[in-house]
């Protein structure tokens, strides 16, 4: 992290603004807590990526929350490209004073340079690929792939710099780690998937009971006061996931729940609710 901090800071004098990519399903948990001090007072904008998988009502609230703090924010879906057209105008808006000053000095058309930062798996490569309309080496699903300093021209007078280094999330906060695990940004093999699926089921029961009940054919009455593990057992039973002796295969049920949540099969759902983070700073 210290190395990444140094690498980012050494590039700050070369760039005009920072685009902070967050996962729209976990805008709070997917933000590196040290980012604010790393980028200091550089002009910035927030990009809520993967909004195709997030609850649209929550995305709207998050955008309003950031904008209410005078931080430009847009929602994107890099799978289809929805929202990408707003990126360049938003950056120009954030930099409007500077652009005016450049124009007054006769530096019209000066190249605008933006650093793209975000924790692993948030969609930085997909975003840069989309914006630069060129296919780089396959976008990988390996959190923490090492990156060098890479510049991309995304149009006349507009360059993007990929995060120099790996910007880790706040792993020391257990609730952040858990939320990142829900969306699959933390490797499953280091986690107890049944416990994780149970926690996710409890969150869904408390916040999105209708899609949860519809997907697993549960009635709200039977899950209203249940513990996560009990809901997991119900899911396994309804799905006929049994092992010899009629016992429920909760391991299989856990994988199904996590896979279906991550694939947005349960619907567009958000884990970090804007109303729980009124003091978010970036
Ligand atoms: P990173 O550079 O920040 O580490 O992230 P990267 O672009 O590698 O994206 C991580 C995964 O997230 C990829 O999935 C990518 O396709 C997916 N992704 C990126 N942006 C979006 C988005 O707006 N919506 C959705 N639904 N997914 C997005 P993958 O499974 O690794 O690759 P693949 O499915 O493209 O093969």
Mean pLDDT: 91
Question: Helix/strand-derived class?
Answer: alpha/beta
Percentage of β-strand residues: 5-15%
**Oligomeric state of the chains present here:** single chain
Task: Identify the overall geometry.
Answer: elongated
What fraction, in percent, of the residue positions are helical?
A: 40-55%
| Largest pleated sheet | 6 strands, mixed
Strand order of the largest sheet: 3-2-1-4-6-5
Uncertain ranges: 137-146
Per DSSP, the total helix count is 12
Distance between the first and last residues' Cα: 18 Å
Tally of DSSP β-strands:
8
What ligands can be seen in this structure? Answer: guanosine-5',3'-tetraphosphate
**What's the order of the H and E elements?**
HEHEHEHHEHEEHHHHHEEH
Radius of gyration: 21 Å
Describe the structure.
- By secondary structure, the protein is of the alpha/beta class.
- The protein contains twelve helices and eight strands.
- It has helices at 2-11, 35-39, 56-68, 87-94, 96-104, 124-132, 174-182, 193-207, 209-216, 220-223, 228-238, 250-262, and strands spanning 17-23, 44-49, 72-75, 112-117, 151-155, 158-162, 242-243, 247-248.
- Strands 3-2-1-4-6-5 form a six-stranded mixed beta sheet, with helices on both faces. Strands 7-8 form a two-stranded antiparallel ribbon.
- Helix 3 links the parallel strand 2 and strand 3.
- Helix 8 crosses helix 9 and helix 11 packs across helix 12.
- The longest helix is centred in the C-terminal third of the chain and has 15 residues, at 193-207.
- The chain is elongated and about 80 Å long.
- The model is unreliable at 137-146 (pLDDT under 50).
- Guanosine-5',3'-tetraphosphate (G4P) is lined by residues 49-50, 52-53, 77-79, 118, 120-126, 139-141.
